[in-house]
């Protein structure tokens, strides 16, 4: 899993030209929620971190959307978007330096594989009972639990001293 972590971090940094900034949040190894990243996406001038400023306009796999647009797209029950929302937050948290247990590393890896293989339209066309759709929802739940601090070290505190949800 360390190979995956190094490869993912290297890819994100290379694509975005990011150099890891010294950040108290990153040093604590905590996670920010999807809602935190979504609000940051919608209010880009609001206390934006180097990580989000770097990721938000990058293309998100085969979706035809940027990371910011993914968070603004309603899921409407489409397993692609459900997983994409959690993956955006998880990748931002990962890049920020959040502690990543093996279960989460596996989920990040599988989510990346799925996003690199399917488009939102392909997943929308599948029946709700499809095994692939069920797998995407299951992987999304792991990432959601991590993003919400139920797995790992917990959620971060935002710059104002409040929780980040």
Kindly report how far apart the N and C termini lie.
28 Å
**Rg of Cα set:** 15 Å
The count of strands amounts to 0
The helix-strand sequence is HHHHHHHHH
What overall form do the CA principal axes indicate?
A: globular
The amount of helix comes to 55-70%
Return the structural class.
Answer: mainly alpha
- Mean pLDDT across every amino acid position: 79
Give the uncertain stretches in residue-range form.
Answer: 1-27, 44-48
Strand content: under 5%
Number of helices: 9
Q: Main beta sheet, described?
A: none
What's a quick, concise take on this entry?
This protein has helices at residues 2-16, 24-28, 34-42, 50-55, 67-72, 79-96, 102-117, 120-124, 131-147. It has 165 residues and is an all-alpha fold.
Provide a descriptive summary of the structure in words.
It is a single chain. The protein has 165 residues and is mainly alpha-helical. It is built from nine helices and no strands. The chain has helices at 2-16, 24-28, 34-42, 50-55, 67-72, 79-96, 102-117, 120-124, 131-147. Helix 3 packs across helix 6, helix 6 (79-96) packs parallel to helix 9 and helix 7 crosses helix 9 (131-147). The longest helix is centred in the middle third of the chain and has 18 residues, at 79-96. The model is unreliable at 1-27 and 44-48 (pLDDT under 50).
Main features:
165 residues; mainly alpha; globular; disordered N terminus
């Amino acid at each position: 899993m360390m190979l995956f972590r190094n490869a993912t971090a290297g890819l994100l940094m290379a694509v975005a030209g990011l150099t890891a900034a010294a950040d108290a949040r990153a040093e604590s190894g905590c996670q920010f929620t999807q809602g935190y990243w979504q609000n940051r996406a919608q209010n880009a001038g609001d206390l934006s971190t180097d990580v989000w400023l770097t990721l938000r306009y990058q293309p998100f796999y085969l979706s035809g959307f940027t990371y910011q647009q993914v968070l603004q797209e309603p899921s409407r029950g489409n397993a692609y978007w459900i997983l994409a929302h959690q993956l955006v937050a998880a990748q931002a948290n990962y890049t920020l330096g959040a502690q990543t247990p093996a279960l989460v590393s596996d989920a990040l890896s599988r989510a990346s594989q799925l996003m690199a293989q399917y488009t939102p339209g392909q997943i929308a066309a599948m029946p709700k009972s499809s095994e692939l759709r069920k797998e995407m929802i299951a992987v999304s739940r792991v990432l959601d639990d991590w993003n919400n601090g139920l797995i790992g070290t917990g959620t971060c505190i935002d710059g104002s001293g409040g929780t980040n949800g």
